[in-house]
């Protein structure tokens, strides 16, 4: 079930909220938690009831492994840890990567490849990593094994089940035992509604609208010229951000409505002045997982520069593979590993230089920790955005060759007017009457009007990318009448736009 769907907004959410607060009001806390789990399973099974089998098996076996690992002796515990990792990663590997590895093995051996008929459960990458993190923390003795009811709630809690954020046990399980969170709080619920509406508008009004032009561009790569290829690359980067961050905003808002806080997953990533900083602000919970459970156990940055570079590259190659079973995702991860490595090495070089004044900051330059003055930061932000945007071409492309084709179009420096066709594909439904009237009155002006609207839409997106985060207005305690009216308009506008809704981009990851 999608957050941005009529059945979720007008049926599922009201029923779930009503049941949750009714049982909590009657102090039937375990029943309330069970009700939330049951509704979450409905939410998940709405796509295809067959998904429940893999989720249930993962949940049951994962909990048993945690319990056994906690009670096991040192020698047996190592075997259980290996078994737990093999189970979780094995399930993910079978459902998501079996065909990928078989296809490449057949290509090496020169044999024909027949794909296995495997139904990929949505959200499996997210809930597998969430369980794996809990299992490893149990093995390390960093947490006690909770009840199965808490474990199931931790795993299937619907606001973050399909798209993250990837939560740690300490961020969620403890909240189910805080009685104050079980009681209805109008102010908290209002803040959640604000955050949900802002996320819904980012997804429905910005990402889905921009997605029309982006999809059209990728369907006609051969026709691209340099300007249209640039807008295609930037358009997808912006679409993905509003799509994913909008969905995470909705998840955080839903959590607030139920009294359960969910970790933030974005922190204004396009304000970053380096690729390393970008990854501290983009998909933060995924970065946290790889840092804690892969990068640090491998030695992190403690074993010399070469080992640090190798560890960084391995993390990003795995991150690329986590996003999708395709070489273009692996190459995307490789490019980001290069970017982060260069950023880190440059930062160390800057930090090693003596300061130029008493305050420790060279006039007009970076400070000793690698920070940048306002004068130097803007060009680095522009460069970072450009680099990240170019790398995400491979994230969107179906194949490596398609990605290189788009990059090649950018640097061919040719113009054939294809940008007018991309602008027409934007097709903002709300302006249909205006464009239709212009088409009848002055058809020669319509392409220019579409182009102007296209550029204006990009300008609006650019302003929003540098504006305050959604958590800021959602966290304001008092809503003015004007702000309330604006939110109501955004909500109605977003709901009316759901008829042309697109699937959440991260479902396949």
Can you put this structure into words, describing what you see?
The chain is mainly alpha-helical. It folds into three domains: 6-183, no CATH class; 185-273 and 389-509, no CATH class; 286-353 and 366-371. The chain has 21 helices and no strands. The chain is globular and about 75 Å long. The two termini are 16 Å apart.
Question: Could you say which structural class the secondary elements and strand pairing correspond to?
Answer: mainly alpha
- Major sheet: none
> What sequence of helices (H) and strands (E) makes up the elements?
HHHHHHHHHHHHHHHHHHHHH
Oligomer type: single chain
Low-confidence stretches: 355-370
Number of E-type strands:
0
Query: How helical, in percent, are the residues?
Result: 55-70%
Number of domains: 3
General shape: globular
Radius of gyration: 24 Å
Mean pLDDT: 87
Distance between the termini: 16 Å
**DSSP helical segment count:** 21
> Strand share of the residues?
under 5%
């Amino acid at each position: 079930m999608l957050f941005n769907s009529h059945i979720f907004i007008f049926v599922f959410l009201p029923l779930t909220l009503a049941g949750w607060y009714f049982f909590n009001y009657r102090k039937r806390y375990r029943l309330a938690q069970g009700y939330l789990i049951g509704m979450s399973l409905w939410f998940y099974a709405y796509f295809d009831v067959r998904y429940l089998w893999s989720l249930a098996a993962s949940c049951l076996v994962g909990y048993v492994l945690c319990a056994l690992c906690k009670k096991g002796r040192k020698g047996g515990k190592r075997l259980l840890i290996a078994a737990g990792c093999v189970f979780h990663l094995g399930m993910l590997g079978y459902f998501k990567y079996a065909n990928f590895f078989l296809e490449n093995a057949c290509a090496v051996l020169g044999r024909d490849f027949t794909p296995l008929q495997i139904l990929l459960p949505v959200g499996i990458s997210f809930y597998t990593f969430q369980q794996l993190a809990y299992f490893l923390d149990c093995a390390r003795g960093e947490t006690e094994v909770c009840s199965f009811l808490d474990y199931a709630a931790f795993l299937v809690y619907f606001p973050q089940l399909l798209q993250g954020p990837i939560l740690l046990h300490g961020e969620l399980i403890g909240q189910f035992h805080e009685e104050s969170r079980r009681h209805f709080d109008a102010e908290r619920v209002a803040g959640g509604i604000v955050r949900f509406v802002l996320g819904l508008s980012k997804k429905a009004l910005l990402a889905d609208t921009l997605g029309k032009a982006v999809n059209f561009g990728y369907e006609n790569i051969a026709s691209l010229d340099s300007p249209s290829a640039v807008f295609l690359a930037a358009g997808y980067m912006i679409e993905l951000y509003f799509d994913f961050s909008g969905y995470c905003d909705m998840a955080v808002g839903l959590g607030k409505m139920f009294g359960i806080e969910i970790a933030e997953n974005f922190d204004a990533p396009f304000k970053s002045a380096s690729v390393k900083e970008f990854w501290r602000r983009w998909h933060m919970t995924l970065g946290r997982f790889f840092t804690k459970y892969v990068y640090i156990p491998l030695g992190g940055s403690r074993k010399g520069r070469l080992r640090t570079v190798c560890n960084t590259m391995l993390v990003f190659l795995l991150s690329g593979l986590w996003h999708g079973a395709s070489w273009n995702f692996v190459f995307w991860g490789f490019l980001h590993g290069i970017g982060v490595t260069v950023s880190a090495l440059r930062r160390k070089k800057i930090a090693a230089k003596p300061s130029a004044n008493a305050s420790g900051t060279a006039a007009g330059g970076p400070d000793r920790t690698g920070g940048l003055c306002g004068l130097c930061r803007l060009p680095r932000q522009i460069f970072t955005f450009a680099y990240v945007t170019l790398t995400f071409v491979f994230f969107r492309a179906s194949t490596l060759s398609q990605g290189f084709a788009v990059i090649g179009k950018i640097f061919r420096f040719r113009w054939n007017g294809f940008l007018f066709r991309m602008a027409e594909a934007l097709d903002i439904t709300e302006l249909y009457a205006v464009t239709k009237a212009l088409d009848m009155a002055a058809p020669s002006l319509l392409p220019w009007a579409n182009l102007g609207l296209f550029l204006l839409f990009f300008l609006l997106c650019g302003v929003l990318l540098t504006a305050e985060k959604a958590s800021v207005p959602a966290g304001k305690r008092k809503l003015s009448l004007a702000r309330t009216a604006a939110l109501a308009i955004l909500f109605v506008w977003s709901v009316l736009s759901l008829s042309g809704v697109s699937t959440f981009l991260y479902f396949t990851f």
